[in-house]
Specification:
This protein is α+β, with helices and mostly antiparallel strands. It has 4 domains: 19-221, Histidine kinase-like ATPase, C-terminal domain (Heat Shock Protein 90, 2-Layer Sandwich), CATH 3.30.565; 227-393, Ribosomal Protein S5, domain 2, CATH 3.30.230; 400-535 and 593-642, Rossmann fold (3-Layer(aba) Sandwich); 538-574, no CATH class. Helix content is 36%, strand content 19%. The chain has 20 helices and 23 strands. A hairpin with a 5-residue loop joins strand 1 and strand 2. Helix 1 (19-25) packs across helix 5 (123-129) and helix 8 (285-304) crosses helix 11 (369-398). The protein is globular. The chain starts with 18 loop residues before the first helix and ends with a strand. The model is unreliable at 1-17, 106-111 and 633-644 (pLDDT under 50).
């Protein structure tokens, strides 16, 4: 006989939530998360609506402000949200826009927007639902209309509150602290996205203002050259093959394509792609069209110039070495691979972009034979180097580096084989490596000592990279391969931690390591696997009191001030290297998960990261020196901190 069920399951157990209630109950379904990323997503949603007005040709200015009370305002000079009574809902259209899920002007047909980044009409409703309060102001018909909402609920009907001679919409909102882990907007995070949008929408002016006490600042973004200006910015620290990026734009009906291309003397391939202003980080059909056409026209140019023999052919990899390119398409009914919009899937876009690139890039090369000759010769050099790299890779594979399960001899591995629980410390030198090996928790912490500074991969091709013993050791230890053979599922450690001395040499070694990972294993950074350990600079001792560890010169200064009455009794030990610490000290300060601080390396802005690695590790030491001198005092702001 079955046991009695205490709680019956019937119709009254089924909850029915209206749209905004569901957003508040399940915010992650609408804004991806409730952390800092989700918080800033709210701003992006409101700005995207203003961008859509710009795409439709009605708006040329957007102003974003972080107000003194911590709220955020987004103002545009578009047409303004329609203020009339909605024929089906019986309330103002403004109220419908902010409260009715799946109501919006982006569903095709006779909708208000033919091209837009939003697909589901949820954006500003989510902002409204997840805000403690929101105020919507519309400037239209010579009047100012206003409505206020508390946690998505309108407090009164839309009302006229004044007169105006302008048009547009202003949305001000204060995020709900009961929903978000933090409600403090980061100026630099907003700045990065708004600058990107200004590049993607030439002629559009976007301002960002911080009105918070002690944080006052303002930036204005306006780029008449659009994505051409973006490519120039990305390449400003590089020696380029031709001085001005090739730029072309093509339209067919409601579909447009913009492409900007410039080659530099480096070895990296940098292509950024966008669809309706959405950064498609995994590419898609527009990138496929670009690559296909570029390979075709450069091969054709090589044959016309008699540089390539009849049966010779450059591959896609050959023609893209050293390229910096941006492709941006705008289209009706954009189809993305997933809700995160990382990849464009519209099949018609590939031939459209390919035709645009073939015609325009083909004309450029024909009109500039000297540039065409230099480009083709450069691609031939890349092909020869790639053949050498392929041979080196095959030799390396035969020796077991890329596929072997035989681990490096210097690696002190951990006993637990569950990768999600394990971490590996990359340590400079045998001395620090020995201390780390003795001080670690052998269950989940592995240690790999490196011999001095690793190769600067920014200045060499793959064949040279694979000749480096230190790099081969890391590839084998990580287990996930590199470049096109990279497989994250084979990663042996969830956390890869650079642990170097707290000095300039240590910082240099860390940058070399990060440059290698960025260029050859970028998903490790994108998916949050890469960290930097933060060892102390000083140990402070006062007789009769426990030792204190200080991580910056500022902390040392504060410690002296706090112990002014015992100033003569303080003894400081300055750590010149990790090897100077005892095993217990290294564990307590730098390796113990309960007390250590790790600096997480992020890809919050891939463009800035790419520029930074080119600057710090490229061919111009004078630019590198200038950057270090100007930013030495604020170097910590380059990374994200967190106790792990």
């Amino acid at each position: 006989m079955s046991e009695k069920v205490e709680n019956e399951y019937g119709a009254d157990q089924i909850q029915v939530l209206d749209g905004l209630e569901h957003i508040r109950k399940r915010p992650g379904m609408y804004i991806s998360s409730t952390d800092e990323k989700g918080l800033h997503h709210l701003v992006h949603e409101v700005v995207d609506n203003s961008i859509d007005e710009a795409l439709a040709g009605y708006c040329n200015r957007i102003d974003v402000a972080v107000n003194s009370d911590g709220s955020c305002s987004v103002t545009d000079n578009g047409r303004g949200i329609p203020t009339g009574i909605h024929p089906k809902e019986g309330v103002s259209t403004v109220e419908v826009v902010f409260t009715k899920v799946n109501a919006g002007g982006k569903f095709g047909g006779d909708s208000g927007y033919k091209v837009s980044s939003g697909l589901h009409g949820v954006g500003v409703k989510a902002v409204n639902a997840l805000s403690e309060w929101l105020e919507a102001e519309v400037y239209q018909n010579g009047k100012i209309y206003k409505q206020v909402y508390n946690r998505g609920v309108p407090q009164r009907a839309l009302a006229i509150v004044g007169d105006t001679d302008k048009t547009g919409t202003k949305v001000t909102f204060f995020p709900d602290k009961d929903i978000f882990e933090t409600i403090e907007f980061k100026y630099d995070t907003l700045k990065s996205r708004l600058r990107e949008l200004a590049y993607l929408n030439k002629g559009l002016t976007i301002t960002l203002t911080d009105k918070r006490a002690g944080k006052e600042r303002q930036d204005t973004f306006f780029y008449e050259g659009g994505i051409r200006s973006l490519v120039e910015e990305l390449n400003k620290d590089n020696e380029t093959l031709f001085p001005v990026p090739v730029y072309f734009e093509s339209s067919s009906g409601e579909t447009t394509c913009e492409v900007a291309i410039q080659y530099n003397q480096g070895y990296s391939e940098v292509i950024y792609s966008y669809a309706n202003n959405v950064n498609t980080i995994d590419g898609g059909t527009h990138v496929e069209g670009l690559k296909q056409a570029l390979t075709k026209v450069i091969n054709e140019s090589g044959h016309k110039l008699n540089i390539l023999k009849e049966n010779d052919r450059l591959t896609g990899e050959d023609v893209r070495e050293g390229i910096t390119a941006v492709v941006s398409v705008k289209l009706i009914n954009a189809q993305f691979e997933s809700q995160t919009k990382d990849k464009l899937n519209n099949s018609s876009i590939k031939p459209f972009v390919a035709k645009c690139v073939s015609e325009c890039m083909g004309n450029f090369l024909e009109e500039n034979p000297a540039v065409a000759r230099e480009l083709v010769l450069r691609c031939l050099t890349a092909q020869k180097a790639r053949d050498a790299a392929r041979a080196a890779r095959d030799l390396t594979r035969r020796k077991g580096v890329l596929e072997s399960t035989t681990l490096p001899g210097k690696l002190a591995d951990c006993s637990d084989k569950r990768s999600e629980l394990c971490e590996i410390y990359i340590v400079e030198g045998d001395s620090a490596g020995g201390t780390a090996k003795q001080g670690r928790d052998r269950r989940f912490q592995a240690v790999l000592p490196l011999r001095g500074k690793i190769l600067n991969v920014e200045k060499v091709r793959l064949n040279r990279v694979l000749e480096s013993d230190s790099i081969k050791d890391m590839i084998t230890a990580f287990g996930c391969g590199i470049m096109d053979e990279f497989d994250e599922s084979k990663l042996r450690y969830d956390r890869i931690i650079s642990m170097t001395d707290a000095d300039v040499d240590g910082a240099h070694i860390r940058i070399l390591l990060l440059t290698f990972i960025f260029r050859y294993m970028r998903p490790l950074i994108e998916h949050g696997h890469v960290y930097s350990a933060v060892p102390p600079l000083y140990k402070a001792s006062i007789k009769g009191e426990p030792d204190a560890y200080l991580y910056t010169d500022e902390e040392q200064k504060l410690f002296i001030e706090a112990h002014a009455d015992k100033a003569k009794q303080i003894e400081f030990q300055r750590y010149k290297g990790l090897g100077e610490m005892s095993t217990d000290q290294l564990w307590d300060t730098t390796m113990n998960p309960a007390t250590r601080t790790l600096r997480k390396i992020t890809m919050a802005d891939a463009m800035e990261a790419d520029k930074m690695f080119s600057l710090l590790m490229g061919e111009h030491p004078e630019l590198r020196r200038q950057f270090i001198q100007e930013n030495a005092a604020s170097v910590d702001s380059a990374d994200t901190y967190g106790s792990m």
